[in-house]
Amino acid sequence: MTITRTLATADRVLRQLARDHRSILLLLVMPSALIGLFAWIAVDQPTLFQAFGPPVLVLFPFILMFVVTSVTTLRERRTGTLERLMTTPLGKGDFIAGYGIAFGLMACLQAIITVTFAVWVCGLKVAGPVWWLGIVAVVDALLGTALGLLASAFARTEFQAAQLMPAITFPQILLGGFFMSRDNMPPLLSAISDWLPLSHAVDAVKAVARGDDWSDVARRLIIVCAYVVLAIVLASFTLRRQTE
Amino acid sequence: MNGPLSETILTEAAVVVDGLTVRRGKATVFSNLSLSIPRGEITGVLGPSGGGKTTLLRAIVGVQRIQGGTVTVLGERAGSATIRHRVGYATQEASVYRDLTVEQNLRYFARVLGVSADEVNRVIDLVDLRAQTHQGVESLSGGQRSRVSLAIAMLGNPSVLVLDEPTVGLDPVLRADLWDLFRSLAANGTTLIISSHVMDEAMRCDRLLLVREGEIIADTTPDALLADTGQDNPEAAFLTLIRREEA
After folding, report:
1. What residues of chain A lie within 8 A of the CB of B114, using their CB?
2. Can you state the angle between helices A214-238 and A130-151, rounded to 10 degrees?
3. Considering its fold, how many domains does chain A have in total?
4. Which stretches within A79-127 are classed as H helix?
5. Facing residues of B22 across strands?
6. Is A243 among the domain residues?
């Protein structure tokens, strides 16, 4: 792995994204639009928006980053450019890290835009500092990116990648404590949810909303970060120089 | 050519394939295939589609999973890190980023290979795409797109250039230009391994490997092929060889 090759790859992925206006809109504008829609739906029930706004704020970036990352990476596997890269000195780590950096930057931009919109336009209130909300949103979007990178290894077509999205994200949404506290689930499901990365992301954002101590938020974010690293490492193992 | 290979062949040949076995799914593509490809020449890998040409080229660049045997390129195991920057490869489908411009594609691969930005300009001129430099690859014709792919393969002036059907879909003038380019590269010492299913292109090669159903049915030169079969064109010569095999 070398810095120049990793950065060259990140730069190339960003240039591709820059020419893809739909993906840019999907990543940067769509989460705010959805938050705005939610705020509008709940305009007469402000407690609903205040209660569910924070978890939703981390959910949309997660799903959108997952979709865009998995499809983009898959396209590279499908069009032969990945095979070509595997005949060059580019390391597998360079490839994965390049994608990680490019989409990580997009995740940061997305978080800044979405949190700004949610707090200052939609009036979302959290007891903790607003910038923590931003950090949680970034880490969560990174989780979407990392899982998307990993998922693309298990799909052969763009359609299969799209199929993986509900298969991987929906169970995590149900078990992650979006609609009810994870403690009130049957013990087996509660135990399963402890092992799902999104559960900890939801815990983190709820902690920010409640105004918990920063160490409580940090502890949960570290767990999510560990999943991000794990998914990225696994993703680089799924890349093969030699294929059938 | 089975059995131990002499040191001379290993060092002097650009590519040595020894006892190569490749299976894809349940189908066996190659079983105990051996051959060697000399340096500084144009070797044509010819034969019908589905005969194993692409699999052979993939094995040479080291991206084909193999079940047995060895493939040695420039004295190293095919695909090893030490030779990756010395082997250029263009797949049959132009493997380029369609959503980038010609120049952005070349810049990226130049940075990956660690070659200077001047190289980008050099290869753009070699494939005659100067006018399309800033055009998106998506808007190029199929022939232009495959020339972008070829240009990428030539970045950094690799010692071995492996090209899978580089002239498919090109008009005759352009095809002749490219063969002139290949000839000049070989004159400067580059080893070219070029697959084609167009038998006419056989006559432009120094050496020929005729591949059919996973077997090398001839390892020869264009003149020897014609002399041996008593034909006056490669297409007919190839047919004669197949009939002889079947008889």
Report:
1. 4-5, 89
2. 20
3. 1
4. 81-86, 92-116
5. B30
6. no
B62 to A242: CB separation less than 8 angstroms, yes or no: yes
Q: Which of A83, A89, A242 sits opposite B81 (nearest CB)?
A: A89
Series of mean pLDDT values for 10-residue runs along chain A (244 residues) = 94 94 92 94 91 88 89 88 94 92 92 94 92 91 91 87 88 88 92 94 93 93 96 89 86
Domain that residue A46 falls in: 3-238
Structure tokens at A12: 């190339």
Nearest Cα of chain A lies from the Cα of B234 at a distance, in angstroms, of 31
CB neighbours of residue B44 within 10 Å: 25
Strands (E), B39-117: 42-46, 68-73, 76-77, 87-90
**What pLDDT shows up at residue B193?**
97
Q: pTM value? A: 0.90
Which residue is associated with the tokens 């089975």?
A: B2
Among residues B117, B88, B87, which one has the least CA distance to residue B103?
B117
Residues B99, A20: C-beta atoms closer than 8 Å: yes
**Nearest-CA distance A243 → chain B (Å):** 5
User: What's B56's domain CATH number?
Assistant: 3.40.50.300
**Rounded CA separation B129/B123 (Å):** 9
Please answer yes or no on whether B112 and A5 come within 8 Å at the CB atom.
yes
- Alpha-carbon dihedral of residues A150, A151, A157, A162, nearest 10 degrees? -140
Whether residue B2 lies inside any domain: the answer is: no
Scanning A119-148 for CB atoms below 8 A from B yields none
Bridge partners (DSSP) listed for residue B130: none
Write out the two tokens for A217.
């938020």
Any domain includes A244: no
Cβ <8 Å between A87 and B89 = yes
Burial of B232 (0-12, 13-18, 19+ CB in 10 A): exposed
Q: Which residue of A has its CA nearest to B61?
A: A87
Tell me if A80 and B91 make a contact (CB, 8 A cut-off). yes
* CB A178 within 8 Å of CB A51: no
Q: Which of A16, A68, A81 to mutate to test the interface with B (most CBs of B within 10 A)?
A: A81
Dump strand ranges (E) for A52-196: none
Would the CB atoms of A12 and B97 count as touching at under 8 Å?
yes
Are B84 and A83 inside 8 Å of each other by CB? no
